[in-house]
Amino acid sequence: MNRLKYLVGALFFLILGYSGLWWTSAMGAAKSVEATFNRWASEGHVVKASDVAVSGFPYRIVLDTKDVEITRKGKAILFRADKVTLISHLWTPRHWMGEAEGVKASVGAGRIAFTDGKIRGSWRQEDDGSEIIAIDSSGDTSDFSLVEAPYVETPTALANWLISARLHAPQADAATGLHEEKGTDFRITADGANGRLLLLGTASGTPPEGWSKKDLAGWGNAGGLIDFTEIDLIIPKGRIQGSGSITLDENAMPLGSFSLKVTDGRNAAAALADAGLLMKGAENAFANQPGTKPVSVMLQGGGISADGVLVGKMTPIAK
Asked: What is the pTM of this model?
């Protein structure tokens, strides 16, 4: 009988201790979210959200907030959602999953905008301090719509999309003691009715505060660069693969070069011209023959050239 009492007592204190640990961790996570919102607001960004509600005991830590609106200065990034849910466990404090419902979002002061009924994401911190973030279409794109994008004239549906990134923690150089920024590795995939896109690369430089011409040109002047290690665009009439890098000049216009392999280049260029990405007649710059051909592409002074021939003109990405 005494042994049973000791067992019941030990079990009671174990449950009490676990409950206290769960409650402390859950409330700490909720306060951390609220502190992050407050920090963003103090930095000049617009942050609106309801109070954070905590649930999930005993297995999960679930944080819910509603009517979320986050706008980076200059509307470089705008995110709205009817509801955001974050989920973790006591034993995975550096790994969170999330879902957002009723999403309206835009990038580049509205240059790219989309709506989605639900998106999901995850955040994980590695042992070296780097952070891995992934956002995707939650497996259901029936209610996804690309409302605005360069050369997109009508709302467009996607069959699937994924954006993932690794944010490297600054590493101290053993010789100088200075911290080296390693940039952000990214992967972007999108599948649509008219093709598929894959982009792999690294973005370096401090993100611009806003989306004005001055902000973006300042990013480029400070060494900002996007290095594409792999580009793969499949369209009904051809395929474009390769790599390259891009930055912005003093007028916030794209400046870069790409080494590409173009399959059925004449057809591919015609398809891109029909979409408004290249000038009408741009296909004449490509040999009238099937197969794959290497092509050198330059972006400079508002123009797009392929092997030295002007094939397109770019529009400003900021005013």
From this structure: 0.85
